[in-house]
Description:
The chain is an alpha/beta fold and 362 residues long. Helices cover 35% and strands 22% of the residues. A hairpin with a 4-residue loop joins strand 3 and strand 4 (120-126). The longest helix is centred in the C-terminal third of the chain and has 23 residues, at 278-300. The chain starts with 21 loop residues before the first helix and ends with a helix.
Amino acid sequence: MSAAHPLAPVACGVSEPTIWTAGNYLRQFKPIESVIDGLPVPRGGLVSITGPTGHGKTTISVALELAFVRGSRFAGREVTKGSVLVLAGENPDDWAMHLAATLQDQGVDRAGLFDHETKTALLVVPGVFSVAFGLDYLREKLSNCAGPLVAVVVDTSAAFYQGDDENSNTAMRAHASALRELSTLPGNPAVIVLCHPTKGATKDNLLPRGGGAFLAEVDANLTTWKDDAGVIELHWAGKIRGANFDPLRFDLHQVELAGLKDCRGRPIHSVAARHLADERAEQLEARELNDQDRVLIALRRDAGSLADLARACGWINESGEPLKARADRRLKKLHALGLVEQDRKGKWRLTTKGHKDAEALP
């Protein structure tokens, strides 16, 4: 049996390949359009945003979704206005609360989520389904209810993963390919997938679960990381196609949701992301260092309980009660740095390294 010609169409229905001269191909080539000015989020591309739980992935993505739909700036950068489809698979109620908080924080009415003239809309599919099998259904429905999509946000990759083993290269590559197919929906949207990081990931190594197979399929891996001052940094790790960019910083602003109460009649709170100018971010980081210095000085003076530490640092509420949680957060950071430790009775004290740092403080 003679061998198949190397350029013969394969038996899976793939069309016959076309050979171009390089000059002709360059003439028809169109530069990649980023839907966020200066960030590697290409129209028709697949981008991951990886961050640990509680480090602002959903909060920041909701702010981005709203910016797309309204055509407003995101972290001071221009965006491409258009409809957005959110696949809220992991926790639809949590996404809804973040959206309500962001709308309230920005002073945007819910009516602003749909533009009747342009059919620009923020759409959501709550719950999990098979992306591969649901693609045609989404395409049919979208053609009737909204204008062209600028982005599809998948929250999260793990929620829509159909396999049993996240370490399977074959399965994770197929999963990433299915997510990329969402870019074929009307408008050729950017597909933005929120991901949990690999176990034990650090700020400089925030890679999505699934190993190299998933990372190889994305065009860029953006990251979110919240530092001890509560500042969230949006940057990248592992892979980027396009120019580097300076980190964008945000803080999370707590919002009491207007008109909403829990089953006991108490107010419900959520958070909204606000872009921080570099100066403000540096101020918050400096305040965190100052708080740590206060704790070191207090421990040098033998204030070992949480209440004593809070009082010694001047952290008192309006009722005169010590803010023990504030002291506890700083102690945990100092413990991670090897500057403090607890004795058998649970009292905090300085380590040898901590004594040296405390003695160097005024």
